């Protein structure tokens, strides 16, 4: 089906056939959900050994009684786990509670209210802004929106953010004070940044506002599917360019162990960590060290963590293959859409023809298949071309996913034909 070259009578025929198929599906009263990238129950079961692993022994290797107050930076063993995940020195890591999003929010708030490393607080600027590679992660955008920090779209490419656009924006506006990055298996495109992109990001601190920070959300650092994909190190690149203060790295075990009861990590320079800790001291006595100890004993060493992630991949691979198979079969020889084939992470990014995404999502919802809202992968929920749809294959059982993708494919076809006919 190639719409651009189709005659009007062909389009009318296709619309009639597709509408009939759609009405039959609606009669099935489906209730399927592809909205969030949540681990499935089978994935969560992989970490059930955390329960009871301490067996009454709450003391860390250094003698710390993890049941008590204190330890703002987290247990040494938990910091070592975070250092392994992020591939940075342990002394540059803080281990916290269950949410890297909480750490990111706290870090943005620190920059906004107090400034990092003695730099001007962002709130004192006339119009502080973050650069937002799009499509991107909606929760990042929500942080900026809540604090009134402006957002400027920059396109994502197959190798990371469009660095020409990034550099042009920063050189032209001294009040750009941050950029959001999901550098490995980006949410939602699945792209991993290449070395040139990482090197150019590391050089931004040489000409950006002194308070500028790269928010390096490495959420999928160890979430490879079939083969390990290497991400060039941002820390090494910033040290080579004398811009070590310009980056804050984040990671967590939210999609490694139990999603709501994992560990989160932040890694940064000594000056940045001092800024974060100064504000944290007014907010908390310390993290949940019992949970940190559980995780440290559960993995023991990084090789065990890698083996654990291979088990996740065995569960996820068939689901990603299902999505790719359905899209390839339906759209390989059409002009109805384009999509990414990620090598890891949790999402597949699909682009419809311009002006069709919202209609696809509404048609799918009416047929009983929930998708992430149109525009969610752009700041303020506004996709200027109404094209991008984020597909999250991880949570539903494979059979349900296959059904949901069949509905999705039909909705893309129907919305595309109706758009061409002027019916949308």
UniProtKB/TrEMBL annotation:
Signal peptide: none annotated. Keywords: DNA-binding. The keyword DNA-binding applies. One of its GO terms (molecular function) is L-aspartate:2-oxoglutarate aminotransferase activity. This is DNA-binding transcriptional MocR family regulator.
């Amino acid at each position: 089906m190639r719409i651009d070259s189709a005659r009007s009578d062909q389009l009318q025929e296709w619309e009639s056939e597709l509408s009939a198929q759609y009405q039959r599906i609606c009669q099935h009263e489906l209730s399927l959900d592809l909205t969030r990238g949540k681990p499935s129950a089978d994935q969560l079961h992989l970490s059930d050994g955390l329960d009871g692993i301490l067996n009454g022994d709450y003391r860390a290797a250094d003698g710390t009684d993890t049941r008590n107050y204190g330890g703002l930076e987290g247990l040494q063993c938990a910091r070592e786990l975070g250092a392994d995940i992020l591939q940075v020195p342990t002394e540059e890591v803080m281990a916290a509670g269950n949410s890297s999003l909480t750490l990111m929010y706290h870090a943005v708030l620190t920059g906004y209210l107090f400034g990092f490393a003695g730099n001007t607080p962002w709130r004192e600027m006339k119009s502080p802004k973050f650069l937002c590679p799009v499509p991107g992660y909606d929760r990042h955008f929500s942080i900026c929106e809540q604090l009134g920090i402006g957002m400027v779209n920059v396109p994502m490419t197959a190798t990371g953010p469009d660095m020409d656009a990034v550099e042009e924006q920063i050189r032209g506006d001294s009040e750009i004070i941050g950029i959001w990055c999901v550098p490995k298996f980006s949410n939602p495109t699945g792209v991993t940044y290449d070395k040139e992109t990482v090197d150019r990001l590391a050089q931004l601190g040489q000409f950006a506002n002194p308070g500028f920070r790269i928010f390096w959300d490495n959420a999928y650092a160890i979430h490879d599917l079939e083969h390990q994909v290497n991400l060039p190190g941002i820390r090494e690149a910033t040290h080579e360019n004398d811009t070590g203060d310009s980056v804050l790295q984040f990671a967590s075990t939210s999609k490694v162990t139990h999603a709501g009861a994992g560990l989160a990590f932040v890694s940064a320079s000594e000056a940045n960590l001092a800024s974060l800790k100064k504000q944290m001291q007014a907010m908390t006595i310390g993290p949940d060290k019992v949970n940190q100890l559980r995780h440290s004993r559960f993995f023991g060493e990084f090789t065990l963590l890698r083996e654990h992630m291979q088990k996740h991949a065995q569960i996820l691979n068939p689901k990603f293959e299902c999505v790719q198979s359905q899209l390839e079969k339906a759209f390989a020889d059409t002009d109805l859409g384009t999509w990414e084939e990620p090598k890891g992470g949790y999402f597949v990014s699909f682009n419809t023809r311009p002006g069709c995404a919202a209609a696809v999502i509404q048609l799918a919802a009416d047929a009983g298949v929930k998708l992430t809202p149109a525009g969610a992968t752009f700041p303020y929920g506004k996709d200027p071309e109404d094209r991008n749809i984020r597909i999250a294959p991880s949570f539903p059982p494979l059979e349900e996913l296959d059904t949901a993708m069949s509905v999705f494919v039909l909705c893309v076809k129907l919305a595309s034909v109706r758009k061409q006919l002027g019916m949308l």
